[in-house]
Amino acid sequence: MIIYDKLKELYSSEELKNKLGNYVYYYCFFSNKEEDVKLDKLAHLIPNLKNIYSFEDFVLDFPHLALKYKELKTIYNILISGKKISDFLRLHNKILKQLYYGFYSESKSFVYEQLGYISIDYDISKFEYSFFKRHIELYGDKNELIQFKEKHKIDQKILWEFQKEAWHIAIAGLLAEKIRYDITNSK
After folding, report:
1. C-alpha closest to that of 85 among 34, 36, 40
2. pTM above 0.85, yes or no
């Protein structure tokens, strides 16, 4: 496994035993099954693991998770932070179905604390945006808004905003809150 190789490049066997403890060290490094490697436990005991071990490495090391979950990047974010998936779901367990089958952009089945782990691929660089209490509005070229709407399966209509003299779409739910979270936490 890639994770073994990367950790062995950085630490000696003795250092790994000290960091992980004998049980975790032997269980993780001498098991023949990737299911036995607990990435959350390793990440908890080796704080800089995210800098060493990429999402691409994770996909290669844990193919059984790729078969189980559609939202694999979110699973990686949870585990590499040192959390168990069950701890993540304890915040709000209704999101489990979306981890299996894919995120629904207008879903209300999440809590704010989960947004830091959730990975949604979006690009709003071509749009202006405004935040409102229960939704956000994106303003821009009508065709680009249509593409954005179709990609993210948004049910709302694209309308002309007379005050701003621009086309816009109002979105609420998971995608809107993820955009709001990412923008407010990047400042």
Report:
1. 40
2. yes
